[in-house]
Amino acid sequence: MAPRVPPGQAVTDQWPVLHYGPVPRVDLARWRFQVFGAVEEERVWTYEEFRALGRVEVRCDVHCVTRWSRLDNRFGGVPARAVLRQVRPQPGARWVMVHAEGGYTTNLRWDDLDREDVVFAYEHDGQPLTPEHGWPLRLVVPHLYFWKSAKWVRGLELLTEERPGFWEAAGYHMRGDPWREERYGEGLP
What we know:
Helix content: under 10%
Low-confidence stretches: none
Number of helices: 4
Largest sheet: 6 strands, mixed
Strand content: 25-35%
CATH architecture: Alpha-Beta Complex
Order of helices and strands: EEEHEEHEEHEEEEH
CATH topology: Sulfite Oxidase, Chain A, domain 2
Oligomer: single chain
Number of strands: 11
Mean pLDDT: 93
Distance between the termini: 31 Å
Radius of gyration: 16 Å
Shape: globular
C-alpha cells in the first residue's frame, strides 16, 4: 500500500481554520461564478445553475503547507470537469487563475484542475461547508497542498502564460506538490 502522508506532515483529526483576512458574508441571490480570460466565450452561472452542473463525492486526504494532514475527508460538489466541459479554451490556455472573495487568487496548471478527483465543494463529510471552511463554494484539489484549494471561489480565469496567485506572489511554490515538499519558491525556508 502506498503511503498516505507526505514527508514533513503530521496527521490530525481536527480541521484547522486558516485563511488570510475575514470570513466573507455571501449573499447567494447575488453570487455568480464566472469563467473568463482565454476562452472563446465567457460563462456566468448563478449558485443554483452552478450546482445543477452535476454532483460527485470525492474521498481524499488533505495536506496543508503548514505541515498538517487530515485523512479520509468526503467532499461533495460539482466536478471540475463538468465546469471545464462548459467552456472552450483558446489555443495555448494551459493555466488557470482561481478567483475568490476578497481578491484572493491561486494559480493552477490546466492539467491539475482537469482531474477526476477535483471538485468545487459545498459539502464536507456529509454536511454543508461552514463559512470558515469556504461556504458556499470551495475548490478542492486533493493532490496539491491545500492553499491551492481556495475558499469562497467565484471564478476561473484561463491564461496563456503562468502568473502567480496571492500566496505564490508572497513566496509559495508555483505548483505545491506535497510529495515533493513544494512549499516555497527557491531560496525560501
